[in-house]
Amino acid sequence: MNAATPTSTEPSTEPAYLPRRAEARHCGWCGRRLPDEDRVGRPRRYCAQPCRQRAYERRTAVQRGGLPEDAVVLSGNELSDLQDRLFQLRCAAEDVATAAEDGAEAGELRAMAAELARAAQSMERLR
Ligand SMILES: [Zn+2]
Questions:
Q1: Which domain of life is it from (predicted)?
Q2: pTM (2 d.p.)
């Protein structure tokens, strides 16, 4: 049997949740946090097949353009979206600073800081 049978699907055995480890890894395309791995072997670089595919397409396009392979290329919309999120993050951080200057209670500041950390985590993606 020499027919080239496409093996397009890898077994997806990633558990949904694993304990958090010290070093967080992020998808090489969209920047979302990758789940921790509990298996040996090469760690995954992308969160999903579409991200892997788009990274490959961007990589080949970048190579044609003579840019280094690890160049990060964002479209204008992606950059503008990222800048919007960073601006929101700065505003939220300034709100915490203002609350502290206004003499907010420790509990309130702690809640604001926790909310800020949650917001920052949701903004970790690049795209
Ligand atoms: Zn991804």
A1: Bacteria
A2: 0.54
